[in-house]
TrEMBL record:
It comes from Podarcis muralis (Wall lizard). One of its GO terms (cellular component) is nuclear inner membrane. The chain crosses the membrane at residues 89-115. This is Sodium/potassium-transporting ATPase subunit beta. The gene is ATP1B4. The lineage of its organism: Eukaryota, Metazoa, Chordata, Craniata, Vertebrata. Belongs to the X(+)/potassium ATPases subunit beta family. It holds the Pfam family Na_K-ATPase. This is the non-catalytic component of the active enzyme, which catalyzes the hydrolysis of ATP coupled with the exchange of Na(+) and K(+) ions across the plasma membrane. Residues 9-20 have a biased composition (Polar residues).
Length: 337
């Protein structure tokens, strides 16, 4: 009886050891847990479904895919276009309509506020415009180079036509009708309201003499003695020279200085201050820029001559190599025989 009792106690104590301290002697396998078995079964089932879908897609023909695309674009059963109902598309379009109307309105408001700070008559920022740039006429096909043969009228006719067209506003009769005579040697200061109309000084074409095209309609091109017209770019409120005269000079830029023997300037080599300052196109309507006619009466023939005509005076910059039109202009002159 004693042996039987001990055997029963051992049998009753064995489960306790398995659950409390005996787990180390009898560990459960992770895959034997009920929850894990269900997860593995679900994962295997999902993999099998993916493989079946891939097999079905591999078996689809071009016709099936086209049919699927057609159904996606318009499903007559659900009445959906590209997966959305008309109500859904309407809400999307309404949202973007409101969004872009708001952005357009905000942009227009910002532009309006900015324009309210600007004057249509005077630029707000003018610290980067002075000193002025220089340009010449004739100016053909965006080029300032002049190449021609005096005996061949076709080689220089375009230059002559360009000069005549440019000087139309400088005709004596036009200047007498639109502009007034001014006192030479002084700036023509016109005070008053910013929007008030300003008067302009006369610059008659006849003052250019040999470069006017009146006595010689070919401007000297037919005789190998060409004329060019030099002008400064317009800058509102700018007074060239700051009280001192601004002159023009021309010489060989790179090469033999003897290639240019004689140069004449009309009406003179100086820009008269009476044509300044300029008040803008809205108030200075009839303004005509002063010109300096440059007559190359004796230059070397059959030779490419790099000519530099520049402004000289206080505040003028004419040695800025990266800008060939700032205070000067460099062009090539070639007269062939």
């Amino acid at each position: 009886m004693l042996r039987l009792h001990c055997s029963v106690e051992k049998q009753n104590s064995s489960p306790v050891n398995a659950t409390s301290g005996g787990a180390k002697d009898h560990p459960l396998n992770y895959h034997q847990m009920p929850g894990n078995k269900n997860e593995e079964a679900a994962q295997r089932h999902g993999n099998e479904e993916e493989e079946e879908v891939k097999k079905e897609m591999g078996k689809k023909t071009w016709g099936d895919m086209a049919k699927g695309m057609k159904t996606f674009l318009w499903n007559p059963e659900t009445r959906r276009f590209m997966g959305r109902t008309a109500h859904s598309w309407g809400l999307i379009l309404l949202f973007y309509l409101v969004l872009y109307l708001f952005l357009a309105g905000m942009f227009a408001f910002c532009m309006y506020m900015m324009l309210m700070t600007l004057s249509p008559y005077t630029p707000k920022h003018r610290d980067r415009v002075a000193p002025p740039g220089v340009m010449i006429r004739p100016h053909i096909s965006s080029s300032v180079n002049i190449v021609f043969k005096p005996a061949d009228a076709n080689s220089w006719q375009n230059y002559v036509d360009n000069l005549h067209a440019f000087l139309e506003d400088y005709d004596d009769k036009v200047q007498e009708q639109k502009n007034i005579k001014c006192n030479e040697g002084n700036y023509f200061i016109q005070d008053g309201e910013e929007s008030g109309q300003r008067k302009a000084c006369q610059f008659k074409r006849s003052t250019l003499n040999a470069c006017s095209g009146i006595d010689d309609p070919s401007f000297g091109y037919s005789t190998g003695q060409p004329c060019i017209l030099l002008k400064m770019n317009r800058i509102v409120g700018y007074k060239p020279g700051y009280g001192n005269p601004v002159t023009v000079s021309c010489n060989v830029h790179k090469g033999d200085a003897a290639d240019i023997k004689t140069v004449a300037f009309y009406p003179s080599s100086t820009f008269d201050p009476m044509y300044f300052p300029y008040y803008g196109k809205h108030t200075h309507v009839n303004y005509t820029q002063p010109l300096v006619g440059i007559h190359f009466s004796d230059v070397a023939k059959d030779k490419e001559i790099n000519v530099q005509c520049q402004l000289n005076g206080k505040g003028i910059i004419n040695n800025f190599n990266s800008d060939r039109f700032l205070g000067r202009v460099v062009f090539m002159l070639k007269i062939t025989t």
